[in-house]
Design the sequence.
């Protein structure tokens, strides 16, 4: 299990944009599983939406991307690099994510060619799919 300080040694994101709280497991270059503990004090809930807080879908995608980045950037040859979005494909949102949810984030790297790759990403809450799709990344 990696805590936030250990995660920060792998990926460059920092608060308030560090969107994962812990990493349960990862295999360098292959996969990662992380968690986001969705808290009512999150900065984005002030405006999305007052009185009806829902985690924005783009931030669920970002949480998944950061999880995939742990898998890719933990590789020795990628240390010090950054993984940028190259695309989001087939992303479907199936369930609202709200304060109090424990968002499980799973990313499996399914394709790599040079600095470009694709991760199969699934976010769940209590075993129910909240979002799933493919994330394309570019290493820079």
Sequence:
């Amino acid at each position: 299990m990696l805590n936030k300080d250990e995660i920060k040694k792998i990926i460059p994101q920092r608060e308030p944009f560090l969107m994962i709280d812990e990493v349960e497991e990862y295999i360098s270059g292959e996969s990662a599983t992380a968690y986001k503990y969705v808290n009512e004090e999150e900065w984005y809930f002030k405006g999305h939406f007052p009185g009806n807080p829902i985690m924005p879908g783009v931030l669920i995608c970002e949480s998944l991307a950061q999880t995939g980045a742990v898998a890719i950037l933990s590789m020795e040859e990628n240390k010090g690099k950054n993984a940028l979005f190259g695309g989001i494909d087939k992303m479907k949102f199936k369930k609202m994510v709200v304060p109090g949810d424990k968002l499980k984030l799973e990313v499996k790297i399914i394709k790599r060619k040079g600095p470009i790759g694709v991760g199969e990403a699934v976010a769940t809450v209590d075993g129910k799919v909240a979002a799933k799709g493919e994330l394309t990344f570019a290493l820079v």
User: Anything to note?
Assistant: The domain at 4-139 is CATH 3.10.129.10 (Thiol Ester Dehydrase; Chain A).
